[in-house]
Design brief:
The complex is a heterodimer of chains A (90) and B (462).
Chain A: H1 2-21, H2 28-38, H3 42-49, H4 56-85
Chain B: H1 2-22, H2 26-48, H3 56-76, H4 82-107, H5 113-141, H6 154-174, H7 178-197, H8 205-227, H9 232-260, H10 264-270, H11 293-302, E1 305-310, H12 312-316, H13 320-332, E2 336-341, H14 351-358, E3 366-368, H15 369-372, E4 381-385, H16 394-397, E5 416-421, E6 441-445, H17 448-461
Parallel strand pairs in B: 1-2, 1-4, 2-3, 4-5, 5-6
Helix pairs in contact in B: 1-2, 1-9, 4-5, 4-8, 5-6, 5-7, 5-8, 6-7, 8-9, 11-17, 13-17
The chains are: A mainly alpha (90), B alpha/beta (462).
Chain lengths: 90, 462
Amino acid sequence: MDITIITIFVLAIFVGFEIITKVPPTLHTPLMSGSNAISGIAIIGALLATQLEGSVAMWLGFVAVVFAMINVVGGFMVTDRMLKMFKKKK
Amino acid sequence: MDIYINIAYLVAAVCFIYGLKMLSHPKTARNGNLISSFGMLVAIIATLAIPGNLNWMLIAAGIVVGSIIGAFFAIRVQMTQMPQLVAIFNGFGGAASALVACSEFLKISDGSTFTLIAISLSIIVGTLTFTGSFIAFGKLQGFVSGQPITFTGQQFLNALLALVIIGSTVMMIMGVEPMIAFYVIVGLAALLGIFLVIPIGGADMPVVISLLNSYSGVAAAMTGFVLVASNPAAGNALIICGSLVGASGIILTKIMCKGMNRSLANVIFGAVGGEVEGGGGSGKEVNIKSYSTEEAAMIFDAAEKIVIVPGYGLAVAQAQHGVRELAEHLESMGKKVLYAIHPVAGRMPGHMNVLLAEANVPYEQLKDLDEINPEFEDCDVALVLGANDVVNPAARSDQSSPIYGMPILNVDKARTVIINKRTMNAGFAGIQNELFGYDNSIMVFGDAKDMLTQLLSDIKEL
C-alpha cells in the first residue's frame, strides 16, 4: 500500500509543476492565494478529527476546522476579488 | 458508499487541477478559481457523508466561525496588504494540517513507523509554517522590524533545534516517552519557524512568502500520509492537493530567487536585504539633473513611445490611479504606453500586476522583464516611479555591487529616463544608483501621487 500512495505523491508533484509553470507572472499573486486556498484541503482531515466525543483530539479537530475554513473561504474569496479586476482594454 | 466518496474526492482533485490550469490566462482565471472552490465544496460534502459519528454541532460551529473570519479578511483587505494576508492564510493552513496530525497522534495507540514519521513531519512543517507566517506577517505589517534580526550562533541554534526534533521523532517511533517527545516536537518546531524567518530582511519577503506557501502544501501532503492508514480516500485527496500547492510554491520561490539573482540558501541564511548597509554603498558622487514637472511635460509631449516602470514606492504613495490617468491621456494623444514589471516589484510574486489591475490598467499593457527589455532601445521616455534597485545598471557592470548579476530593466537604454523619487535615499539594498547621474537621466523629485497629478495638468496645458 505504501508504494501506491508514494506513487500518487510523486505524480501529483509532476502535475503541479507542469500546470503551474504555465501560469504567467501577471497572475502570480492570484495563483498564490488560490493555491493557498487549496492547501485548506486539510479541512477533510479536520472534519474527520472531530469524531471522538469529548476528547482533546476532538477539540484539536475543532480548531483545525476553524483554521482550515479561514484558509478556504478567505483564500477563494480574495482570489476572486483580485481576478475580477483583471480587465482587457476597452 | 466508500466508492462514491472516493469518486467525489477524485472529482475534487480534478477540479483543482483544471482550476489551476485555467489560471494560465486572465480571461479564464476567474472561472478557474470558481471551479477550484467547487472542488473544495465537493470534498467537504463527501467527507460529511462518510458514515461515522461526526460531531455535527462542533463541525457547524467551526465552519461558520472560520468562514466568517475568512470572508471578513478577504473583503476588508487592501491590495497593498495582500502579502500579509497570504502570509497569515498560509499560517492557518499549516496550523490546520499540524492540528489534524496532533489529533491523530492522540487518537491512535500504536501507529506504524510510517504513520508516526508522517505525523512528526506534518507537525514539524505545519507548526513552523504557522509561526514563520506570523513573523512574516509581523514584518510586512510593521509589527516586527523589517531589518534582519541576527545573533551569534543562530545557525548553530537552528541546527541544534533540528537535531533535537529528529531525536524526539525517533523516541516517538521507539515508544520511549512518546508524549514528551510529541510536546518537544510541537514546541521546538514552533521556535524553529520563528528563528528561520526573523533573520530575513524585508526586501526578501517575496521569497519567504512563496516558500511558506509551499510549506503549507507540504504540510497538507504529510497529513495525507498520516490519514491513509485510517481513511485512504481522504488521505489520497490530501496528498494530491498538498503536492500541487507544494509544487506551486517551489516554482514561485525559484522565480523570485532568480529575479534577485540569489540562491535560496543565500536568502534564508544570508541575512541581507536590510534598509542600510554602511550608509550608502560605494560612496561615489553622482551629479544629477533635477527638472520641474513643466520641463518633464515637454519631454513627454515630444515622445512617441513611453515605458512606465512602477516600483513598490508607487503603491506606498497610492499613486496607481494617477499613473493610469497619465497613461490614458498620453494614449489619447496617440502615444504608445507600456508598463515594465520586474519580477520582484512589489512585496510578493505578481503583486505589482494586481495593484495596477486595481487601478484599471488593462493587463495587455503589463510586460514582464524578458518582453520589455528589447523595447527600451527605441523608447523615447522611460518613466521610473518608486523603483530603484531593479533599474540599477550596476547589476550589469559593477562586479563589486551587492546586486551584481540581478536581472534588471534596462531603462538606461531609453532616449530619456525620467526618475521620480521622494529623496535621494538609497533603495532597499542600501546602494546608490549610478543611473541617476547618467547623461540621459532626469530626476523629478516629489511624492509620486502629487508629481503625477502635476505632470498631467502640465501636459494638458501645453
